[in-house]
């Protein structure tokens, strides 16, 4: 088994377990590249996570390894925002523990349904 395959099947990757159906989630979109589901701890009226089916630790790694998958992730985020919050949304990727990344499988937070301030945090 290659190193990539072993990492992609890591049992501690919560999001891979969601993709595999081992952990329940409210799935709002699923295709051959990405899966989107409701965040269990929503920070806005609309808070959906969009993830690639394959494991990449952060958005930069995803962009380098699979740019078409990143493009699909953004397309799905837009579709969710169009359906749920009139197309006005914030798409957030955290990279690193210091900025809040707690699951090291890239995921975009689609946030909307209320006003946001700038800067965030």
TrEMBL record:
Instruction: Tell me which species this is from.
Output: Kineococcus radiotolerans
User: So which domain of life are we looking at?
Assistant: Bacteria
- Locate the active site: 107
Molecular function (GO) terms for this protein are: catalytic activity
Q: Where is this motif: Histidine triad motif?
A: 105-109
Query: Which is one Pfam family of this protein?
Result: HIT
Please state what the protein is called. Answer: Histidine triad (HIT) family protein
List residues of the HIT domain.
Answer: 14-121
């Amino acid at each position: 088994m290659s190193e990539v395959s072993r990492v992609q099947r890591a049992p501690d990757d919560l999001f891979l377990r969601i993709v595999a159906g081992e952990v329940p989630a409210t799935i709002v979109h699923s295709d051959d590249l990405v899966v989107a589901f409701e965040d269990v701890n929503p920070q806005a009226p609309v808070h959906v996570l969009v993830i690639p089916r394959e494991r990449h630790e952060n958005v930069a790694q995803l962009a380098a390894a699979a740019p078409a998958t990143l493009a699909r992730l953004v397309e799905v985020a837009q579709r969710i925002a169009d359906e749920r919050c009139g197309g006005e949304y914030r798409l957030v990727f955290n990279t690193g523990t210091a900025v809040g990344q707690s699951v090291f499988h890239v995921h975009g937070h689609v946030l909307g349904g209320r006003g946001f301030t700038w800067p965030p945090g």
